[in-house]
Design a protein that fits this description.
The structure holds 2 protein chains of 2 kinds. Chain A is α/β, with parallel strands linked by helices. Chain A folds into 2 domains: 176 residues, FAD/NAD(P)-binding domain (3-Layer(bba) Sandwich), CATH 3.50.50.60; 186 residues, D-Amino Acid Oxidase, Chain A, domain 2. Chain A contains 10 helices and 19 strands. In chain A, the strands form 4 sheets. Chain A has an 8-stranded mixed sheet with strand order 5-6-4-14-15-16-13-17, sandwiched between helices. A 6-stranded mixed sheet of chain A has the order 8-2-1-12-19-18. In chain A, strands 9-10-11 form a 3-stranded antiparallel sheet, with no helix packed on it. Chain A starts with 6 loop residues before the first strand and ends with a helix. About 2% of the residues of chain A have low confidence. Chain B is α+β, with helices and mostly antiparallel strands. Helix content of chain B is 33%, strand content 16%. Chain B contains 9 helices and 9 strands. Chain B has a 5-stranded mixed sheet with strand order 2-1-5-3-4. In chain B, strands 6-7 form a two-stranded antiparallel sheet. A two-stranded antiparallel sheet of chain B has the order 8-9. In chain B, helix 6 packs across helix 9. Classes of the chains: A alpha/beta, B alpha+beta. At the A-B interface, helix 2, helix 5, strand 17 and helix 10 of A face helix 1, helix 3 and strand 9 of B. Bound molecules: flavin-adenine dinucleotide (FAD) and iron/sulfur cluster.
Chain lengths: 389, 254
């Protein structure tokens, strides 16, 4: 069946919703994106801006690591002029870091992440602000993105393919009749009026709010809002992303972006991700731990301190660092006997394109649309085209 | 210790006259103004519309006017603007842009100028403090926040004026290209009465720019370039070709 006239409403314009919209629009479906705030005003806009190489997951979560390196390489092709590409270092500053090195290198091999080992001198020659305690480093292809602009690039391209993008449009209800979702009720926050959008299928890409949306169709999705604190410091003191060569922990990464250095992050769980209080002890931990790798960070002023919740999949009882960082797409027809409704959650901004592909495959199979995914090779328009189209 | 502050926000709602709403907010004084806005939306008034993304002065989307000055509320502390417990914070949208709702303005005109200027997104990185030049790349400093456009007295009165962000962007584009004819075309674009010669040298833009772009300084440099070009042309001297950096986007080489 051709994609013509079949319509999909995507809820949420974070990296996931933006990539889903792009993929579906490219396959010819009539896509409408509804986002209650500005583009990327949820988790995506406020994340750490790391284009993952997979290094952070290559020991404990190899499935995620493989996803990351594959998508990292694809994004270099489809949005080549919108990324800071200076690679990343995993640096050892303690004996326990050195002990971790072997596992890390095995992980890189297993996940096919390109790497290069450096001595402490070589590393500090390239990155002179690294700690004097540096013992060794491993270079990997990390990069840096601008999450809001990345969403705008996906959405500009979707708009070029006839998608309609509606920011400041909040979903307040799902229309369900006879076990089938066939529309959304939205509140237009510009005119302060409500109206309905009829559709053949709804994709719930509401990130940490996915559970709120699914509850509107009496369906439960196990999304655990898991915040982290980040501190952006005045001044750039490394060209590369600086990661701690060890098991993931709090404050173990410094992402340089433009003229700042962003230290992150921490992890705990909350019930309501709308407004999350910044925990002062977590901020202090960022200074303390970040400066173990780049000591000057303890002496410069913070510029922005921010917090935002990951939409991790799992149940609230699990240890939040153990919840997988991969994504899951739920077809609620199979899972909950609700037709016309798909939820995509988890994952990362780095893997948004793959999340879009998986979701669009599910949506197209459900709607009987036989169109292949083309997002791996389609160059995205500049984010600046977003307002023009 | 939290402060209790009085916040007033200009409310722009379609087909209604502009009003001012008042809110009382309890917040720690070292939090940022954007935290105040988000807290009001989350806890008191779901009808409030505002733009935000990164909360660390990188996306440029939250720019507003706070107590009479253009700011990025994500990096300005409550205590620096409100000054004392019980003080007032008056918020409104950027000036010189069409208002869509409340604190949200239409950025399309700015992005159109940036596209016309061929403003690169990524360029050669500045060297690290105290370090020599090296071959790295970084996002351009201009975060396209619109603060300079809102603060500029000329933009306020002359809709033909390209404005500080666009002119600074043309300067960057010239810097990034080695092609003499392209450089010349870019300089032609701004060597006009509504381009670099329209600036009144008020320096508001450079004072308020949150990202060290120094648009006024760049406009002055463009004026010198245009003047030198005129002299060179008068004397019949050929344009000089200057080298610029390329960007290597290949991942770690084995
Ligand atoms: C602290 C932290 C650091 C991170 N760092 C990185 C990193 O460096 N690199 C990386 O790749 N990933 C990173 N991530 C992960 C990544 O940010 C997230 O996985 C990703 O942003 C999730 O995107 P999303 O689109 O699913 O969710 P969101 O971005 O939250 O998008 C959901 C959208 O739905 C909207 N919405 C909610 N309710 C409604 C409604 N009723 N109607 C309409 N719209 C609604 C929200 O406003 C929101 O914009 C980080 C996450 C955290 C928490
Ligand atoms: S020049 Fe500065 S103030 Fe103007 S848009 Fe760019 S970052 Fe904002």
């Amino acid at each position: 069946m051709s994609a013509e006239r079949l319509s999909v409403v995507v809820i949420g314009a974070g990296s996931t919703g933006a990539a889903v919209a792009h993929d579906l629009a490219l396959r010819g479906l009539a896509v409408t994106v509804v986002e209650r705030g500005a583009i990327a005003s949820g988790t995506t806009g406020r994340n750490h801006c790391l284009l993952h190489s997979g290094g952070r997951y290559c020991v404990k979560d190899q499935e995620s690591a493989v996803e990351c390196i594959e998508e990292n390489m694809i994004l270099r092709e489809i949005m080549p002029h919108s990324l800071e590409l200076n690679d990343g270092f995993f640096v050892a500053v303690s004996d326990s870091d050195m002990d971790y090195m072997r596992k890390f290198l095995e992980g890189c091999e297993a996940c096919e992440i390109p790497y290069k080992q450096l001595t402490a001198d070589e590393a500090r020659q390239q990155e002179p602000y690294l700690s004097e305690n540096t013992l060794a480093a491993v270079a990997v292809p990390d990069g840096v993105f601008e999450p809001q602009r990345m969403c705008m690039a996906f959405l500009a391209t979707a708009k070029k393919n006839n998608a309609v993008v509606k920011p400041f449009t909040e979903v307040v209800g799902l229309h369900v009749t006879g076990g089938r979702v066939h529309g959304v009720r939205v509140w237009d926050r510009i005119s302060l009026t409500e109206y309905d959008i009829d559709t053949d299928l709804v994709v719930n890409a509401a990130g940490p709010w996915a559970e709120e949306i699914s509850a509107m169709a009496n369906v439960d999705v196990p999304v655990v809002p898991t915040p982290g604190v980040m501190v952006s410091m005045t001044g750039r003191y490394a060209h590369k992303v600086i990661n701690r060569l060890n098991v993931s922990s709090d404050g173990d990464i410094v992402v340089p972006q433009r003229e700042t250095s962003i230290i992150g992050t921490s992890s705990w769980t909350v019930d309501n991700p709308d407004y999350i209080e910044i925990l002062e002890d977590h901020v202090q931990m960022m200074y303390d731990r970040g400066s173990e790798m780049v000591p000057i960070l303890n002496k410069v002023e913070p510029r922005g301190i921010f917090v935002v919740a990951r939409p991790l999949i799992g149940s609230a009882s699990e240890d939040e660092r153990e919840i997988a960082r991969t994504f899951q797409c739920f077809d609620h027809a199979q899972r909950d006997n609700v037709e016309g409704f798909v939820t995509i959650a988890g994952g990362k901004t780095t893997t948004a394109r793959a999340m879009g592909e998986t979701t669009a495959d599910v949506v197209c199979a459900k709607l009987g649309v036989d169109e292949p995914c083309r997002t791996k090779t389609t160059r995205l328009l500049s984010y600046r085209a977003f307002y023009r189209i | 210790m939290s402060w209790t502050i009085n916040v007033t926000i200009e409310r722009h709602i379609v087909a209604r006259p502009v009003t001012t709403d008042r809110y009382t907010v309890e917040i720690e004084p070292h939090r940022n103004i954007l935290d105040v806005i988000e807290k009001i939306w989350a806890e008191q008034d779901r009808t409030l519309t505002f733009r935000h993304g990164c909360h660390h002065a990188s996306c440029g989307s939250c720019a507003i006017v706070a107590n009479g000055r253009e700011v990025l509320p994500c990096i300005v502390h409550v205590e620096d603007t409100v000054k004392k417990d019980g003080g007032t914070l008056a918020l409104g949208p950027l000036r010189n842009f069409p208002v869509i709702a409340d604190l949200v303005v239409d950025m399309e005109p700015l992005f159109a100028v940036m596209e016309k200027a061929g403003m690169p997104i990524v360029g050669p990185a500045d060297p690290l403090p105290g370090q020599p030049e090296d071959d790295y790349n970084a996002f351009e400093n201009c975060i396209e926040c619109g603060i300079c456009m809102s603060a500029c007295p000329v933009v306020a009165t002359d809709s033909e004026y390209m404005g500080p962000a666009g002119l600074a962007a043309v300067y960057q584009s010239i810097n990034h290209t080695a092609d003499a004819s392209e450089r010349s075309r870019l300089l032609d674009m701004v060597d006009t009465p509504s381009g670099i010669w329209r600036c009144h040298v008020a320096y508001e833009c450079s004072e308020l720019c949150p990202s060290n772009v120094d648009p006024a300084g760049k406009i002055m440099t463009l004026r010198r370039m245009a003047t030198f070009r005129r002299i060179r042309r008068l004397l019949g001297i050929k344009e000089k070709k200057e080298a610029t950096h390329g960007i290597d986007t290949t991942p770690v080489k084995q």
